[in-house]
Structure formats: structure tokens, C-alpha cells
Amino acid sequence: MPRVLITTVPFGEVDPISLRVLEDAGLEYFLNPIGRRLTDDELASLVQGFDCLIAGTEPITDQVMAAEPRLRLISRVGVGLDNVDLTAARTRGVEVSYTPEGPADAVAELTIGLSLSLLRSVHIANRAIRTGVWKRIQGRRLEKVTVGVVGVGRIGTRVIRLLSAFGGEILANDLSPVTLDQAVRWVDKETLFREADVVTLHVPLTRHTRNLIGADELEVMGAETLLVNTCRGGVVNEAALADALRRGVIAGAAVDTFAEEPYHGELVEVETCLITAHMGSMSADCRLAMEVGAARNVVAFLAGKPLDETVPDTEYEMRAADEEVG
């Protein structure tokens, strides 16, 4: 009987239907016994004896795949693939699937929520009042500011749709501009950084986007600019951001994803930085959709059926190009 290792945490807590999908198919599964994001060494030890892996954001390296030659499928709960060595997977004949639609609505809504919180200094007021300081902070409304959206894919388009209801100006930037139902102004990145009051990032982590926002880009932004990152750690240079916030180069930032997680870095001590724990996809409905999708991918794969959510060839080609340059 094929065996399935589930390493992403949590899994099956919102609704056990994702586990029942595996049970109804007669599959034997095991949940992450450590209860947190695994290291590659831990995963390499745990994966032995399993045919399929239902994974989260833990590093799935060539070392991990080499530890269990019978591994046939990596089924990602979510959309990010920067933690998976796609080149090694293809070389070893390991199929990779993901659930790209599942988290999109939740991430888009959190982006709006973080933007509103930054504009109204909710995080600063919350911290102040807990230390006995009562201060009413005057802020800004989304309708009265310009928002720049970098990356107009599944999530970026949803962010734009939500933003349009507020009525403010929207700037957009993407390698391949798309037709939208909402009014936006397509601009280059430097123009977006210079003109936007709120800059929000929705790009994958690649060679081209690593440190997309560094000291130089932050200097282009104005002193009242707010930065939101709900895409991937590594897209923003965290040290440069901390320095810019301390010096008042920009007014504030909200960061949900980090290069190293759990995060314990210097942004924790920066008052103007709102920090969340990579929880963009963590709404009950979206989490459930991702889990069920990942489980169904496993069942379909083991039944020899085609997968609707197989990672496309373009992702492998882009990774190979990155590695060749690197």
C-alpha cells in the first residue's frame, strides 16, 4: 500500500475532510510528529518509507529526495515553489503538484487588511496603549492614496479588484501586463516606487526577484510610503528594510513572509514594522481548499489519473535558467 507523509502544519484541523480524502482512497498517511516546519535534515529522516509527500514550506532538497528513492510525488499545499528543488525532482522522476488557486483570496484580503492597518497605524496604537500611552494617531484612507501593485498574477489581480472598491488610484507592474476589468495605470518599477503611497508585492521568489526591494529601491520611495510583503521572504532585503525604517526613509512596512522562518530578526524591534507569521493563506476556507486539493492530487496521482494542478513546464524552465546563471 502506498504511504503518504504529511509534513505541513496544520493539516486536517479546519475540517478532517482532507484526511478522509486519503482514507476513502485506502491510503495510509502519517502526520508531522514534530508539529512545526521541518529542516531538510529532519525531513530527510522522516521521508524514508513514503511514496508521496504532502508538503508545506519546508525545504525539499535533493538530499531529501535522495533519502527515499521510492518517493514519487511532492504535493504542495499552497502556491510557492521556491522551497522545492524542481531540477532535482525532475532528474529523479518525482512529480510535483501544487494548489495555486487555494490561497489567493486569503492572501489578497490580508494584503488589504495590512494596508489599512499601516495607513491607520493600528499596530502602533495597539502597542502604545498596552504600555499605558493613550495617543490618537491621524492616518490616511485607501481612497485618498495611490497603491502600487508589483506582480499582477492570481493574487495581484485579486488585490486590484479589492482595491478598486475603495476608489483610489492603482499603479500596476508586471513582466507581462494583462487586461483587467479595473482601471489601473501600468508603469515601470521605478515610477511605481516613486509615486505610490502603498507598495504591495505579489511576485514569486526567483533569481530576478530576490532582493527586489533593497536599499536603492527604498530610497526611491517617499518618506510617507508604506511597503507590504505578503509574497515570499527574500523578495525584500530585511536588513535594508530595517535600516530604512529606522532612518525614516519610508514610513512603515508590513511583512508576512521572511527569508528564514520562524523569524527572529531585527524587524521585531522596529515599531513601524507590522509583522505576521506567514499567515496570508491562513483563512479557514482557503486553508481547507489547499489541503483538499493537495490530498486529491495524491489520490489522482496514485490512481494514474492526470493532475489538474501539476507544476507547469515553465516553472522548471525558469528554475533551470536561474541555476545556470547562478
Brief descriptors of the model:
326 residues; alpha/beta; Rossmann fold; 2 domains; 5-stranded parallel beta sheet; 12 helices
Description:
The mean pLDDT is 95. The chain has 326 residues and is α/β, with parallel strands linked by helices. It folds into two domains: 143 residues, 3-Layer(aba) Sandwich (Rossmann fold); 172 residues, Rossmann fold. The chain is 36% helix and 14% strand.
Concise structural overview:
This protein is 36% helix and 14% strand. By secondary structure, it is of the alpha/beta class.
Indicate the topology.
Layout: E1 3-6, H1 17-24, E2 28-31, H2 40-46, E3 52-55, H3 62-66, E4 73-76, H4 86-92, E5 95-97, H5 104-119, H6 122-130, E6 146-150, H7 154-164, E7 169-173, E8 185-186, H8 189-195, E9 198-201, H9 215-220, E10 226-229, H10 238-247, E11 252-255, E12 273-275, H11 284-302, H12 313-325
Parallel strand pairs: 1-2, 1-3, 3-4, 4-5, 6-7, 6-9, 7-8, 9-10, 10-11, 11-12
